[in-house]
From TrEMBL:
Transmembrane segments annotated in the record for this chain: none
A GO biological process held by the record: tRNA splicing, via endonucleolytic cleavage and ligation
Protein name (record): tRNA ligase phosphodiesterase domain-containing protein
Annotated ranges, domain tRNA ligase phosphodiesterase: 1039-1181
Residue numbers spanned by region Disordered: 54-81, 603-625
Bias (Basic and acidic residues) ranges: 60-72
Bias (Low complexity): 611-623
Pfam family name, one: tRNA_lig_CPD
Length: 1199
């Protein structure tokens, strides 16, 4: 019995009967129309797919084409409706709303020819055309369809009583919900249980580069220069991630589906088809969706719109730009290369991005130099113009950023791709020329903004209006958005149950096995990620008690998860990548013996086949990885512009701090951000002045009511426009302002708690980097200080605090020192510290409590911001490992110390039966962070770091018995937490094992007490080292360790730096030979006034950005400079130079007269030295030749 038939059977007590005893089928009065399944359907005409626009597994021959399925014969009208048709009618009701809903509001209606639809076979057809199935009418309840429910012979189904309608609808919803719940609860996992999982939509995996940005740049240039790869650069449009897998596959945001974000995405994508294809849009929409479904593909796009909230600039148009095309058929997802994406998009007339290729060392180096020259002032026009000049290949996008979005450019994305990419791109551009749009003057109906403006009662109404407005090809039903119309949603308990049963079931294919492996690993290691499952309404016809279907959303909460998973992939290369925007269809089912045998017998062949054909580069094409190592294939760097960041990060993201905590906290926040970015000092001063004025303006205008971040540009843009008009300097700072698009009246209604990517529930709030004052700038004595301890019990923090309290003179100033011991505080500890800070604002507080995770660090950072304090983390010095900042040696010492304690205030001592388990719990709170990541994060948050010596460097290795018991404990802890979470060790499956291990731990550590005592540094030495570091921080002499973050300022000019000492020696030589020169230089004090010497090659203001950037290939290379003469007059002096060559290429200066400026009189700008040759010709300057010329070498640098 099918699912619809079972549901109908459940209604047997409520449906009325005819006099003959037969059930009457009630015609539920509804504005929604559904079409019976028995209507014969003809799909679009067959069309040839070029090899670059087809899935790779179908490119074996040039002649291969998609073929139209044979049409079934059109059935004649019948008087009696079969039970299957009745079942289908009920099922259609349960699916949700048909797109042919008549809401009574005709404002969103769009003609069929424009909205996209199908033709029925009984319509007249043009000779030679193949029919496309299509409803006769759109947006109305009229129109005759041969097999509608009203043709049921029992006209008693015409009962239209309101109470009957409501009862039946409620019964439908309740029955469906009951079916879902009963199916899951009654589904047990046994040997006959199998599961099949298939990726439905995904975006590129997020690879976290462990190298610094500078190292990545160097590596990229090196690979290009050696001919191993090509550097590809694309524009970053400012919007939200949107993925589309066809009208059956679904529409998705980054971590969600079925909401206003995906509804807007579907509408905009459909409108792109209408604009591109004009009168044949409906046909092409149907072909496109059929193609995606048959090929099992997904396209990812940047959704740029003014209706979903403000980014850096409100776009002038609502549009999408395709950023990825993915084949999801068999094996691992395969991502198209950029040339293949462009071929695919031109085949379907989809919007493409602007792309540049750099295939030589000179062009690649020039690109990075161009960005550095523009990073603080760049907008779309100068950036695109400059990249066009330095790139080897430039492919303009079909959506021009300047026209569609505006001048404010978010950034650029640079990545390494195949060395054949440039050649491939040229072939694509020749084979797929740009096709003009066929829109002509067609009326496409209401726009996105008009529909949103006309439907502002609630989000649900907007969703319906948008999906109805784009037509059936892109949205045949609303089930993904509205479910079964009963508001039934999958509870979190069900989520966990689905995932558990999925992992317990046997995989039916290789893809499922790899997805299980990924999810199992992430759960075992407790990575911060959620696996949210929902009913798959697309599979309602196939649901039974033994056949269940779900959609899974893999939602990664923290970028650290990608880093940690990446590390796991190095140790297990067979792992599939962890993707961004990750959606999986899951099928749980029972298999009979024959089918189970097929799965078992076919698995080895299937694995072998997939291994042969499934190797794909997740950042490019299937072939682009062949000549690149994994580490190099994933090299990518994002480069953002200050004109965008000042709007989004400094203004929008700072609103909550400004309104909640006031101007001082806001100032601390934006200064901290600018330091993290490495903003030049000049821009920092300009921005500080502008942001202070903005803060005063918006607080005065809004009072205590915080400006909404979704419409912040309504206030920020007019302010920036007026500010830019005051001076040229302000205009350069702002970049572009004005032409504000008013969005308040057409903003989409976003549910509470959603983020800008459309997450259904805001799992975690993104917290900006802590604006705690940087210790390198010095900690002011009129501020407080919090010393805290990111450590593990046994790290000696309490003993250290006691010593610091008794140190004569404290930290070298008059601030009092207080200690708050966590084990003696009742209630919440950190709020107690905050209260102590308020009572004693200028004191030094020793926070004697372990602070092991980011949540605590955020509390400390917020406390510092609110109470005008600085914070200093003190950590035990340990080598650490790749996945934990503490080594096994350190953990063993901590456990040894704890098990020697008596009468500990927190009851964690040798009398504690589970002391080892507690320390393992703390140890695993740091899991996933390497030592470098751990230290770098603390430095970035708090600006300083104090290390407490722990272990001797020349110690012997950890004894095997100690190492073994530690590793056994870690394995037992992982087993315990995997099954029981944070349940106490005395409870659960492994309670006996824990008792045995705790006893073994004590015995082992006691037997190795001599060793464990010998490897520790003396405690008094550790105290002395910590005290010296704290005093250095308090006095301002401390210099924080480098975290290898990118810190490039904006490039202004290129020059060759010369050693000052050699210039002084040359001047002495010339003076000794020429009395006039000696007399001239006598009163100039060149020793003290001449401290930096360079030969300017090009200046951004005088010669342009690309002129400066052209020297990028020679940066840091030694260049010989030949000094040929000295020119001088009473106002200035300079050395005339001739430049040498590097690798056989002569370095040419953009200045007509290459020189070194030595001295200028007061009030004379150094650039005036360029006029000395002309002054010499006019007899107003003297020249002393240096013969033979003196050669001085120096590096070429950017300034």
């Amino acid at each position: 019995m099918s699912a619809p038939q079972r549901i109908i059977a459940s209604f047997n007590q409520s449906l009325p009967r005819s006099p003959s005893g037969a059930f009457l089928f009630l015609r539920l009065v509804s504005p929604y129309r559904t079409l019976a399944r028995s209507l014969s359907v003809a799909f679009p005409p067959a069309f040839a797919i070029n090899r670059l626009a087809m899935p790779r597994n179908q490119r074996k021959t040039r002649e291969q084409k998609w073929k139209e399925k044979p049409r079934p014969e059109t059935s004649s009208p019948v008087s009696v409706v079969p039970s299957t048709v009745v079942a289908e009618a009920v099922t259609s009701k349960l699916r949700g709303l048909s797109i042919t809903e008549c809401s009574g509001d005709s404002r969103t209606a769009i003609p069929v020819s424009q909205a996209g639809g199908f033709h029925t076979h009984n319509q007249n057809q043009t000779s030679g055309q193949k029919a496309i199935w299509k409803p006769r009418s759109y947006g109305t309840a009229g129109g005759a369809i041969s097999l509608e429910a009203e043709n049921v012979s029992a006209r008693a189904g015409e009962i239209q009583a309101n109470h009957s309608q409501a009862s039946a609808s409620e019964a439908n919803s309740q029955s469906l919900s009951k079916l879902f719940r009963a199916g899951l609860e009654g589904f047990s996992v046994d040997n006959s249980t199998y599961t099949r999982a298939q990726v439905r939509a995904t975006f590129y995996p997020k690879f976290e580069n462990e190298k610094s940005d500078q190292e990545i740049r160097i590596r990229m240039i090196e690979m290009v220069s050696r001919g191993l790869a090509t550097l590809e650069v694309s524009l970053k449009h400012s919007g939200s991630l949107f993925m589309y897998a066809g009208n059956e596959g679904g529409a998705y945001a980054k971590n969600s589906f079925g909401n206003i974000y995906t509804a807007v995405g579907v509408f905009v994508l459909g409108r792109m088809f209408q604009e591109a294809w004009g009168s044949v849009a409906a046909k092409k929409q149907a072909e496109f969706n059929e193609f995606l479904e048959k090929s099992h593909m997904c396209i990812s796009m940047e959704l740029v719109t003014a209706v979903l909230g403000d980014h850096g600039q409100r776009p002038r148009e609502d549009y999408v730009v395709v950023t990825a095309v993915t084949e999801l058929g068999k094996g691992k997802p395969k991502f198209y290369s950029t040339p293949e994406i462009i071929a695919f998009c031109r085949r379907w007339r989809l919007p493409t991005n602007h792309v540049w290729l750099f295939s030589s060392r000179k062009s690649a180096a020039s690109f990075f130099a161009t960005y550095d020259a523009l990073c603080e002032e760049g907008t779309a026009t100068p950036v695109c113009r400059a990249l066009d000049e330095v790139a080897d290949v430039s492919v303009p996008g079909s959506k021009d950023h300047i026209t569609a979005q505006g001048e404010i450019l978010e950034g650029l994305v640079a990545r390494i791709v195949s060395r054949e990419s440039a050649k491939h791109m040229e072939e694509v551009l020749e084979e797929f020329p740009v096709t003009p749009n066929d829109r002509a003057n067609l009326d496409l109906g209401p726009s996105l903004r008009e529909i949103c403006a006309a439907n502002r009662s609630d989000e649900k109404q907007q969703i319906k209006a948008l999906l109805n407005g784009i037509g059936p090809s892109f949205c045949p039903n609303l089930s993904d958005w509205l479910g079964n119309e009963a508001g039934d949603s999958h509870s979190r308990n069900a989520d966990r149950s689905v995932v558990s049963k999925f992992l317990q079931s046997q995989p039916a294919d290789y893809s499922t096995m790899k997805l299980q492996e990924m999810i199992r690993l992430m759960r075992e290691k407790r990575y911060p990620a959620a696996f949210k499952c929902y009913h798959n309404f697309h599979k309602i016809d196939s649901i039974s008690n033994d056949n269940l279907f779900y959609k899974m959303v893999i939602h990664v909460h923290s970028d650290s998860t990608f880093r940690r998973y990446q590390r796991d992939m190095r140790y297990n290369p067979g792992l599939w990548p962890l993707y961004r925007g990750f959606f999986v269809d899951i099928n749980l089912f029972k298999a009979n013996k024959e089918r189970a045998a097929e799965f078992t017998n076919g698995r080895p062949n299937m694995i072998e086949s997939t291994n042969e054909n499934g190797s794909a580069n997740e950042n490019g094409s299937a072939n682009s990885k062949d000549d690149l190592a994994d580490e190099d294939a994933n090299l990518m760097i994002k480069l953002k512009f200050l004109t965008y960041k000042l709007r989004t990060f400094l203004i929008r993201n700072g609103l909550s701090i400004l309104f909640r905590e006031g101007l001082p906290a806001y100032k601390t926040y934006y200064l901290r951000q600018m330091k993290i970015w490495g903003t030049s000092s000049g821009k920092q001063q300009q921005l500080s002045k502008m942001l202070d004025e903005w803060a005063a303006y918006i607080r005065r205008k809004c009072g205590n009511k915080q400006l909404s971040s979704s419409i912040y540009l309504s206030e920020a843009e007019p302010f920036l426009e007026q500010y830019a008009k005051r001076s040229v300097e302000n205009q350069a700072l702002i970049g572009s302002a004005g032409n504000l698009v008013q969005a308040e009246n057409f903003l989409a209604l976003v549910g509470v708690g959603r983020d800008e990517e459309g997450d259904l529930v805001a799992e975690r709030e993104a917290v900006p980097p802590s604006p705690v004052p940087n210790a390198r700038d010095s900690i002011l004595k009129d501020e407080g200080l919090i010393v805290f301890f990111p450590g593990i019990p046994g790290c000696a923090k309490s003993a250290l605090c006691k010593e610091l309290l008794n140190v004569p003179g404290g930290l070298g100033d008059d601030r009092p020192i207080h200690s708050l011991m966590g084990d003696l505080i009742k209630g919440k500890y950190w709020p107690m510290v905050a209260e102590e800070r308020k009572r004693k604002p200028y004191s030094i507080i020793l926070a004697d409590k372990n602070a092991p995770n980011e949540e605590v660090w955020r509390q400390i950072a917020d406390m510092c911001r609110r109470t005008k304090a600085s914070a200093v983390p003190v950590i035990p010095d340990s080598e650490g490992g790749y996945s934990n900042p503490f080594s096994l040696d350190a953990l063993a010492v901590f456990m040894f110390r704890v098990l020697r304690r008596d009468n500990h205030p927190g009851n964690l001592d040798k009398a504690s039966p589970n002391a080892g388990y507690v320390l393992l719990m703390f140890y695993h709170l740091y899991e996933g962070k390497s030592r470098q990541e751990f230290e770098s994060e603390l430095v970035e948050r708090f600006g300083s770091l104090v290390k407490m010596p722990l272990l001797k460097t020349n110690r012997d290795p950890l004894p095997d018995s100690v190492k073994s018991v530690m590793e056994e404990g870690i394995s037992l802890y992982k087993l315990h937490t995997s099954r029981h979470g944070r349940l106490e060790s005395s409870k659960g499956t492994y309670a006996k094992e824990w008792v045995k291990w705790e006893r073994q731990l004590r015995d082992t550590l006691i037997n190795n007490a001599e060793y464990l005592n010998s490897i520790q540094v003396p405690f008094d030495f550790a105290v002395k080292q910590v005290l010296e570091q704290l005093r250095s921080i308090a006095s301002g002499d401390y210099k924080a360790p480098s975290t290898e973050k990118r810190k490039f300022g904006s490039i202004v000019f290129a020059a060759i730096s010369l050693p000052v000492a050699q210039i002084h020696d040359l001047l002495k030589t010339v003076s000794g030979r020429n009395p006039n020169v000696e007399a001239y230089l006598k009163d100039k004090d060149m020793e003290s006034s001449l401290r930096k010497v360079h030969v300017t090659l090009a200046h951004k203001r005088s010669h342009g950005v690309t002129a400066v950037a052209s020297y990028g290939v020679f940066v840091n290379r030694e260049v010989p400079v030949y000094v040929t003469a000295l020119l001088y007059n009473p106002k200035m002096a300079a050395l005339e130079t001739r430049l040498g060559s590097v690798d056989g290429e002569v370095i040419n200066s953009k200045n007509e007269w290459p020189h070194v400026t030595l001295w200028t009189a007061e009030g004379v700008a150094p650039k005036e030295a360029n006029s000395l040759p002309q002054l010499l010709s006019d007899g107003k300057a003297d020249r002393v030749e240096i013969d033979p010329p003196v050669t001085i070498c120096g590096p070429l640098e950017f300034f």
